[in-house]
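Hi everyone, sorry if this is the wrong subforum. Our group has a chain we'd like a structural model of before ordering constructs, and none of us has done structure prediction before. Sequence below.
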Amino acid sequence: MLKTLKNLWFRDPADATPYINDVSVRIRAGILLLIPLFMGLTLYDVIYSSKWIVDGNTIVDTYDTDWDGNIIYAVQATKRTFDYTIQTWVLLYALFEMICGMFVFTSRLSPTILISSFLGRSKPAVWKPLVPKRFAWVIGASLVSLCLVFFNPDTFAGWVNTLFSAELLPTTVNFLPYWIPLILVWVCLGLMWLEAVLGYCLGCQIHSLLVRFGLIEEACDACNNINWDNPSKESKG
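Answer:
Right subforum, don't worry. Here is the predicted structure as tokens:
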């Protein structure tokens, strides 16, 4: 327990090249999977459900029909208004979690890292470098940020217009089409499912390709003379 609280999911927080336990990473992905599920239910309600609330006690038969012979009813309905306060806070928490996992010192601020480290403490550790995971979480943070803009278009538009002192974005309508967050929710859901269930990190694979093509520079583990028996004494050269 004390070792878990000290190291969390790190092989050794003092490593020159941080390594994290992939078992705990998969557990954390399973926990965070609840966020895109919740957002998916929200988008389903907003996009596909009725935009109107009809009072069943006010439906009155007009005793008239339209040209197709359909009976015409008079109803009293109220247009629904959506409050995204809860969704915004959930997305802000998701963004917080993505950022916390990127660095050793911020990892201690993440409740899910602590929980996943505790739950995975009795399993054989699978050490993987933090850098590719950090790249994957940068992608996740970008997707979350775009969803935040969709749910708060007026706020974001106000910031942009104030920054550039011009009316670049409208503040009365949502300038992002609904299909953008709808696709992003499925993308996030799929990526987290792959991580949690199959242990496949697509962001890590993209990072690997970028390194292979020379677009990202990364030190070679074999060149660092890592001492696996005492990883804190890695060669700095």
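For your construct planning: Residues 2-50+82-232 form one domain. Residues 130-151 form the longest helix (22 residues).
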